[in-house]
Write a structure and sequence with these properties.
- By secondary structure, the chain is of the alpha+beta class.
- 23% of the residues lie in helices and 32% in strands.
- A hairpin with a 2-residue loop joins strand 3 and strand 4.
C-alpha cells in the first residue's frame, strides 16, 4: 500500500513538474521570424497610439480676475475624434505654469467663451473655448494639454507665451 501511495505521489509530481519545466530553460535562438518577437510592448503601443482628441492652444492675452488681480485668458480649440460625445473638460487635462509653479484657474468678469469647455461634442465636431488662469507677474507661462486618461504621457499640445 505504501508503495502505491509513493508511486501515485511521484506520478502526480511528475505531471505537475513537466509543464513547469517546459517554461524554463534557455530561449530558442530560431525565433527571429516569429510573430511573437515582433509584437510591440504596451509602452510602445502607448507611444505610437494616436489620441481620440485634437487640441490646439490658439492664443493668450492678459486680463484681470474679478478682484482686479492679473490673469491670463488662454484660447483653445478641441476636436473630438472618439466614437462617444465628449467635452474638453472630460477628455483633457490642462496645466499652466509660471516660474515652475502651477497657476490656479481664475474667475474673470471679462466675457470669455468658457461654456464650451464643459459642452459635449459628437465625433468630428470642433469647439473653441477660453479659460482664465491667475498669474503672479509678467514672466513667461507654459501651457500643456494632455489626454485625461491615457497610457502615454505625450501632450496633445504645448505652448509657451511671453507676457512681457
Amino acid at each position: 500500500m505504501e508503495i502505491k501511495k509513493s508511486l501515485c505521489v511521484f506520478a502526480i509530481s511528475a505531471l505537475i513538474a513537466l509543464p513547469i519545466a517546459g517554461c524554463g530553460g534557455s530561449p530558442s535562438t530560431n525565433n527571429a521570424g516569429s510573430d511573437e518577437a515582433k509584437k510591440p510592448t504596451q509602452a510602445e503601443k502607448a507611444e505610437t497610439a494616436t489620441s481620440d482628441y485634437a487640441v490646439t492652444i490658439d492664443g493668450c492675452k492678459k486680463g484681470q480676475d474679478y478682484e482686479g488681480k492679473p490673469c491670463v485668458i488662454i484660447d483653445f480649440t478641441f476636436t473630438n475624434n472618439s466614437d462617444d460625445p465628449q467635452s474638453m473638460a472630460s477628455a483633457a487635462s490642462i496645466e499652466v505654469y509660471q516660474n515652475n509653479v502651477q497657476c490656479d484657474v481664475a474667475i474673470t468678469d471679462t466675457d470669455i467663451n468658457a461654456d464650451n469647455y464643459m459642452n459635449n461634442v459628437k465625433k468630428g465636431a470642433t469647439i473653441s473655448c477660453s479659460l482664465a488662469y491667475s498669474v503672479a507677474d509678467d514672466s513667461d507661462i507654459e501651457v500643456s494639454v494632455k489626454e485625461l486618461v491615457s497610457l502615454s504621457d505625450k501632450p496633445l499640445a504645448e505652448k509657451t507665451f511671453s507676457l512681457s
